[in-house]
Amino acid sequence: MIKNINVALIGNPNTGKTSVFNALTGLNQKVGNYPGITVEKKQGSCRLDRVTKARILDLPGTYSLNASSMDESVVVELLLNKNDPDFPDVAVVVTDVENLKRNLLLFTQIKDLEIPTVLVINMSDQMQRKGIKIDIEKLEEKLNTSVVLVSTRLNSGVEKLKQILIDYRSISTLPILDSTTIDQDYFENLAKAFPNQSLYKLWLVITQDVNFTKLERQKVPDTTQFKTQPQSYLKKLQQRETIKRYQTINKILKETYSVNREEATDLRSKLDNLLIHKFWGYVIFFLILLTIFQAIFDWSSVPMDFIDSSFAHMSEWIKTQMPAGILTDLIAEGVISGLGGIVIFIPQIAFLFFFISILEETGYMSRVVFLMDRGLRKFGLSGKSVVPLISGTACAIPAVMATRNIENWKERLITILVVPFTTCSARLPVYMILISLVIPNDRLLGINYQGLTLMGLYLIGFLMAIVSASILNRLLKSPNKSYFVVEMPNYKLPLFKNVAITVWEKTRTFVVEAGKIILAISILLWFMASFGPGEKFSNAEQIVTQQYANEAINGLELENKIASFKLENSYIGILGKTIEPLILPLGYDWKIGIALISSFAAREVFVGTLATIYSVESDAEETIKIRMAGEIRNDESRLFNLPAGISLMLFYAFAMQCMSTLAIVKKETNSWKWPSIQLFSMTVIAYLSALMAYQILK
Amino acid sequence: MFPLDHLLIGQKAVIESIETDFLPLKLIEMGCLPGNEISLLHLAPFRDPLYLKIDEAHLAIRKEVAQYIMVKPLMDD
């Protein structure tokens, strides 16, 4: 018989809690979401001995049980709810050897909930270098629990932790702080109102009141009737509790913990002097950004080209191997091209998160937040908006998800709303083909016009993000004040295992989240392009053959003409024609209209759609380009001339043409309100700037 | 005694009092309590945010919050 126990890993951010989780579970982990909210839920399993298996839950990092963000209230809600299937049999509080005092605040809170609580002191390999000495036995006695020194770097202490977990029942559940010492009257009244309940638990329920959803409310003692003191008084009590806890902790540490400051090296101050220098700090950050962009755009082009051609081949192969018919078309043209549209972004996303996780792991990212906060705050953003804005150059989806650690709701919302303006990589193929069509490949003073245009498009996207952020900053009212408190962790070398797991997890999330939407839309678009109402669509072959009956035309050309005619009369063709009056002033015709609509799956679909519309037999960029260059308007002028080209580029720069992003914004903001506002205003901005550009340049 | 944002870089001080109504609880939990030692390590351009060492924690806070923390500089050191 295998016995399962629930273990919860809890700890402050930057204590290496995730490293401990990784060391315990390896790849036996899965990441999901807590129902209804977008906080990541990391769970894994670990065999402790022959008969015991631990289900390990890696709870979001938190500084205390007084939650101030969604991440933190997840921890509190779980620990207060004995009926939750994840409720821990034993809690493991992971602390950092250098910040033991602060970390113990959380430890004492959890211990006071009367849950068996083990203390892990992580990064113990740093002790000697930092001159730290700990009397473990005495600490165990004072805290009334088991204490383990762990170093995930040296892989030590993990086995001992497992042994302690097996024997968790022997750990005392007596609280450390007597709650009545916080405020005798208040807590004695509370004890009278709710006899036989843990006072500290009740206290947490009262102070966390606002955070509970209706459902969760029923599972904890109902304290709504117990309102003897105003909110401000409760806040005072929370502060008094914190002070009391620190007094207790200080007393314990005085007897068990010593630091010889002489032995401490000053790596932090040396690196800080350089990395947050008023001039060099920015130069270094700029160089790091350059490296990241180099990786995203240059290094990843090799695997991307490979993926692109592989999917094209696969599609061809299926067409030749499977019997011709609707099903084959659906798989070859709808499903495979849809899948290809997702997979092609994997190299860029992986590179992006490789760098971001290294920057986070080393502690450098907090320095960037510090450097950039003031500048970005002017626009209603936060120093913490830097990561989303960088991520946005690869894809808006991970960027929107990266806003989760911005505590201030207004700053987070503004970041989410403006991040799709940054030039994501899906816009690149569109820009490339348009630039090569309408911008001369000449140089002025050695600077290539085409390169300059591309750079201009990146800048204009970023500028629009900043401008709209400032506007939103004025329009939006903030319900709560700034809670900008950023920990500046010690510098350390990144652990390869942590980086690898982050890259894997983020890439997987992207593929799943964006994938299902891109795939669904690709199939829908395929359907709309493959079917049409009325005679014209069903008799396309006949009509076109008759039309060209007297002309010398070879089989392949005729086939292309038929495909083109079919598309024109398909549902999507009709849709394109319907919106034509609307987009005519921008310089587009109904064919471009179709491409605009199909871009909602992913912007780069623009190129492929035009290829189909212009009945180009191959997807090679050169062929499409020649065909596009040859397209003419009613007045015999080129369709893709400079005004129309610029107008299109601006439209793609500003329009919210990505269903996956809208879906993720809906998920992150938990309402349709913000994605609708985003879709509407970005489309208006795109339309007006494209209109202006075309009408002025025409 | 003066507000924290008037401290000089490298200067050490002791926290005298905090205006608890304006400080996020998180800051107090990180050790921003009267009696604890505090020093200003770095300032970003425009003297905001402030990079502090409070007790044993290293953290950055904005100037708007720093003005609610009153400190008394330590003379020697």
Structure description:
The complex is a heterodimer of chains A (698) and B (77). Chain A has 698 residues and is of the alpha/beta class. In chain A, 59% of the residues lie in helices and 8% in strands. Chain B has 2 helices and 6 strands. Chain B has a single domain, classed as SH3 type barrels. Chain B has 77 residues and is mainly beta. The longest helix of chain B has 5 residues. The mean pLDDT of chain B is 89. In chain B, 12% of the residues lie in helices and 40% in strands. At the A-B interface, helix 3, helix 10, helix 11, helix 16 and strand 12 of A face helix 1 and strand 5 of B.
* Largest interface (CB < 8 Å): A-B, 41 and 30 residues
The end-to-end distance of chain B, rounded to whole angstroms, is: 17 Å
Radius of gyration of chain A: 30 Å
Determine the fraction of residues in helical runs of chain A and give it as a percent range: 55-70%
Number of domains of chain B: 1
- Structural class by sheet pairing and helices of chain A: alpha/beta
User: How many H/I helical runs of chain A?
Assistant: 32
Largest sheet of chain A: 7 strands, mixed
Q: What is the CATH level 1 assignment of one domain in chain A?
A: Alpha Beta
Helix-strand topology string of chain B = EEHEEEHE
CATH architecture assignment of one domain in chain A: 3-Layer(aba) Sandwich
**Quaternary arrangement of the chains shown?**
heterodimer
CATH topology of chain B: SH3 type barrels
CATH superfamily label of chain B: Ferrous iron transport protein A (FeoA)
Low-confidence stretches of chain A: none
Helix content of chain B: 10-25%
Q: What percentage of amino acids of chain A are in beta strands?
A: 5-15%
